[in-house]
Write a structure and sequence with these properties.
This protein is α+β, with helices and mostly antiparallel strands. It is built from twelve helices and 22 strands. It has helices spanning 20-31, 46-58, 89-102, 120-127, 159-168, 187-199, 231-243, 263-270, 302-311, 331-341, 371-381, 403-409, and strands at 3-5, 12-15, 37-40, 61-65, 68-72, 82-84, 107-109, 132-133, 140-143, 149-153, 176-180, 204-207, 210-213, 247-250, 273-276, 280-284, 292-294, 315-319, 345-349, 352-356, 363-366, 388-391. The strands form six sheets. Strands 2-14-16-15 form a four-stranded mixed beta sheet, with helices on one face. Strand 21 (363-366), helix 11 (371-381) and strand 22 form a beta-alpha-beta unit. Helix 5 runs parallel beside helix 6 and helix 7 runs parallel beside helix 11. The termini are close together. The relative contact order is 0.14.
Length: 415
Amino acid sequence: MNVNIPPSLLGGTISAIPSKSDVHRVLICAALADKACAFPLPARSADIDATIRCLCALGATVTLQDGVCTIDPITTPTLSPVLDCGESGSTLRFLLPVAAALGTNATFTGHGRLPARPVGALLDTLAAHGVTANAQSLPLTLHGKLAGGDFDIAGDISSQYITGLLLALPLTAEKGRVSLTTPLQSGGYVDMTCRTMARFGIAVDVKGSNFSLKSDAAYRTPSAVTVEGDWSNAAFWLAAGAVSRTVTVNGLNTASAQGDRAITSLLQAFGATVTQTENSVTVSPAPLTARDVDMGEIPDLLPPLAIVAATANGTSRLYNAARCRLKECDRIHGMATLLTALGIRVEEEEDALIVHGGTLRGGTVDSQNDHRLVMAAAIAATRATDTVTIEQSEAVTKSYPAFFTHYEQLGGRVL
């Protein structure tokens, strides 16, 4: 489905949707805990639905009613279940070790670009602990039951590997430790995992590149559970505040472990005016100046920052971004193609996107079925000289089904 967005400035106040990253973790911990858990979940997405679907396939019961999610945990794991991960990389990488630890001989499937996204290093680590897979990419079936102990894995391929192993370790008889063989990237997401596990009664002892569990570690349902607002998606509204009109996003934990809360300091570095309270952020436009930004810890911010860079005076370099090529699309190339279609001069490097600030014009952009490219194109349209047409705009449902509704609430036009 294509949408047409005429030039229209955004401004106003919006509430952040629930953090997809936080919800994935809470759902999994709750499904592995000792008793039922309920928490507010006012909005969902295709990726969250994928995790719910897979947990139900493993034996959990999930009820969604009146904005509340209730999870009855897995008591007897389903044997030989089929786990359809949709297009969710988090669902796949988190649940591969969990299903292995449950010993279910699960089959994993997926759609879109997910079968092409890497899981080989994670499968190799599982194989060293007693679980084999009949393939190195989807569809694949696991065989065996995961043994605990010492897990060695690289920290610079995907933080989701480390999260999956940490989530699985309490289910093993031996418990154990995850040790990183290379420096960790996107460490904020592993910190988020540790915080969520702590909420469910499991303390992860972190010493340098080692993450250890005690021998008695077990999931326990807390008395109350909430989820944070989503910084990754809020970043697009905050970017709009920098390039359009003043935008306030409520429901954001400014002390969050989500790495993408760095958007506030980065927008300030570009020149925007940023003010914060304990649970909200306001961004107002100001003359923007190009900046070089290290994307190593914040790869999901490349699309919104590329739009900010396109409106800034000078040339910006978004570097250390090689992992962006392994997302729902090759995001370095995808954003280069998007900005070129809108009249901005860009250059690609193996691990960087170079953006020469200029004037955004109208045009047709290929979202490459990537939710974050859809949102980036919509924010770009606020500063374009003519209508921006976004192809495959339905990709936004992966993380933010209400995006265009909220876009219109902030003053945008969607045709």
